[in-house]
Design brief:
Layout lengths: L2 E5 L3 H13 L2 E5 L11 E4 L2 E4 L5 E2 L1 H9 L11 E3 L4 E4 L5 E4 L3 H11 L1 H26 L12 H10 L5 H6 L5 H6 L20 H9 L1 E4 L4 H13 L3 E3 L6 E5 L2 E7 L2 E4 L2 E4 L3 H8 L11 H6 L5 E9 L8 E4 L4 H8 L10 E4 L14 E9 L11 H15 L12 E7 L1 H8 L31 E3 L10 H18 L3
Parallel strand pairs: 1-2, 1-14, 2-10, 7-16, 14-20
Antiparallel strand pairs: 3-4, 5-9, 6-9, 7-8, 11-12, 12-13, 15-18, 15-19, 16-17, 17-18
Length: 495
Amino acid sequence: MKKVIIIGAGVSGLASAIRLKTLGYDVSIYEKNELPGGRMYQIEEKGFKFDVGPTIVMMPDLYKEVFSLSGVRPEDYLEMSLLNPLYTVYFSDQTKFDVSSNLTELIKQLESISEKDAEGYLKYLSDVYRRYHIAKHAFLDISYRKPSEFFNFKSLVSLLKLKTLSSAYASISRFVENDHLRRALSFQTLYIGVSPFSGPSIYTIIPMIELLYGIWYIKGGMYQMAKAMEKRLIEMGGHIYYNHLVDEIIINDGIAKGVIIQGNPIFGDIILANADFPWAVKNLIKQPKNKGKYQNKKIDRMSYSSSAFILYFGMSKKYKTHVHAIRFAQDFEKNISDLFKSTVPTDPSFYMYSPSQIDSSVAPSGKELIYVLVPTPSLHQNNLTWDEKMTKDYRNHIIKLIEEIPGFEDFEAHIEVEKVYTPKTFQSMFNLENGATFGLRPSMSQSVYFRPQATFKKVKNLYFTGSSTHPGAGVPIVLMSSKLAIASIVKDHPL
């Protein structure tokens, strides 16, 4: 039986372990933290259970597939429900808009804005649905092991059909005129840390996926997905070693042989790194000759996604909102521009997550859990310190903005539990290069074939999976990354 060592018990690491174990490989995961999930982590205090990172469940079939392919019923591991509305958006002019998951209701809402924009929205759905299927079959489902798999006539035709050169916001603007609606259909690129004003237009597939496939909620919060995968892997005989920080990948004569943990070598036939790709190559591959084209200088020059300043609040009273909500800045374009100019936004758009609206298991009775994520610049090539004073000042600033939202005027007075994560937290806790929460930015030069692939060409038996590898960031896409990595492993190392 071939032994696979997986570095990191993140989403893709856990999913990959289950896939490999199903196929008959011997699998062990070594994780630096004390809990599974990577950024799909949990903070628990005084009865409040906070999801640390991802919170929005899209494309639930990809979640379920991890369990069904291993021979069990997903429903025995995860309890999912469809949300309606998808989310609420709050604007600086004190208006708000509940985005319904029911097309009949949504069309009425859109017609109240304008019939022309309702028509435009339907055209947008049709256009981006077609492009999504092109992208899925031509690019997302392919692991590029050699240039000819990308540089061919079929790929060129598919690229032209995708119309990727315009930005997400510009693409949306072709269909709708109302600025509030344009924002509601373009901010989702921030889910993967890219600007809607510069990110490729293909990322307009995200709001389409939200409506057509739904936004779902996992009872107990997103962390239950990590716990469920951990449970399934252990049932299958897989092993997870927590508090085991990998210091180095052992490479002899261009072949990965194992890992070193606290000075002790652990050998295996196959190494799969679920650690963030740029951090792993920079820190775990010690010899420059084994890094290939990804030398440290190149990694430093690569572009990175935005990061996040996240406030986790346990509230002593209930608030009337929905599970997911967005507060938009008055000048949305400037806000987003600041993120990629290394300026911390003074009037930021931010995301609010309150699972206790529908799930009593995540907060004590009569109390509320509210998570506030503010997109911020990563730590790449800037002097942002995120020291105690900066963190406290920005925390106070965000609370003032929250209290400007109708219904939240007394917010600070009811904070019972509070935790803060800054870009530096993500850098140190999850080994994310530059604290970039979503890994490498999915720019044109860092996407598809040009993004790090599952197979590391310079070192035999070494593979990568996760948000900085192809196809990219976001839990559903990372689960696709796992599938691609396992396909490459099986091709190279059949049992």
